[in-house]
Amino acid sequence: MNFASYDEWLDHAVETDVRTGAARWQESDSSEGFDFRVIRTRLDELIDIRASGDPRRLMYYLDEGIHGNMGGMGAPALYKHAASGTKKLITDYVNEIAAGLDQLSETQDSVLSHKDKVTFFRRAKQAFGESALMLSGAGSLGPFHLGVARALWMEGLLPTVISGSSAGAIIAAILCTHTDEELTDILQFNVLHEMFVRLYQPEGSQQLNADDIEEIIDAWIPDITFGEALALTSRHLNVSVAPSEIHQQSRTLNPVTAPNVLLKETLMA
């Protein structure tokens, strides 16, 4: 079943969870997969602290509580039971943290100095880390890669760190070599359809050869280096390159390890 947007997919996922009974699992705090008591306690405390209106107390509380696996809530198994998401308790806790961060950022500088806020948010980012999008190889996954990228882009959630190998590297390079305005045009259904036709229906053959791949890369990737791509889009492209000899190891090229290397040459390697 195909969906035109994330919202359409989510509506269907929620209906599926109600029909299968997974929604009842979401509503219940109890689970052996994570320490739900810790999360419930922290959620209640965070609600009280936010209501108190004390920004320094809130900042202190968030300082030691912002990481993605508090109480084991990041366990992969917790995200496989239901189609539309994990436990409501976890979702509520994450939303409350986000609301707390918004509350701190909106606090007047006369109450909490700008310097203190910047220091806190830098520390929080370091503690929480940064999400990345990893696109695997295998040409058959290309349409799925683009579909996921489009959904993330439409929701304003496309990570700034993107990696890929083989076909995934080409998709990652497209995302990391075009400005936000260009991506808005590229990630439209008619443009994506044109891309799919070129990727998966090469003339006179059932499989892509080296010339087909080079033509695709020339059409969609500009003549720029890793460093130039980062400067243009603020997105960090990482490309995994397979070794050419048996005793060599694969390499990851990015703006740090290979800032002056041309993307087109890397993708053809």
Describe this structure in words.
With 269 residues, the chain is an alpha/beta fold. It folds into two domains: 6-128, no CATH class; 133-268, Cytosolic phospholipase A2 catalytic domain. The protein is built from 13 helices and four strands. It has helices at residues 6-20, 22-27, 36-52, 55-63, 88-105, 114-128, 142-154, 167-176, 180-186, 189-200, 210-220, 226-233, 263-268, and strands spanning 133-135, 161-165, 236-241, 251-253. Strands 1-2-3-4 form a four-stranded mixed sheet, covered by helices on one side. Strand 1, helix 7 and strand 2 form a beta-alpha-beta unit. Helix 3 (36-52) runs parallel beside helix 5 (88-105), helix 4 packs across helix 5 (88-105) and helix 7 (142-154) packs parallel to helix 8 (167-176). The chain is globular. The two termini are 36 Å apart. The mean pLDDT is 88.
Please supply descriptive tags for the structure shown above:
2 domains; 55% helix; four-stranded mixed sheet; 269 residues; 4 strands; Cytosolic phospholipase A2 catalytic domain; 6% strand; alpha/beta
Give a short overview.
With 269 residues, this protein is of the alpha/beta class. The chain has 13 helices and 4 strands.
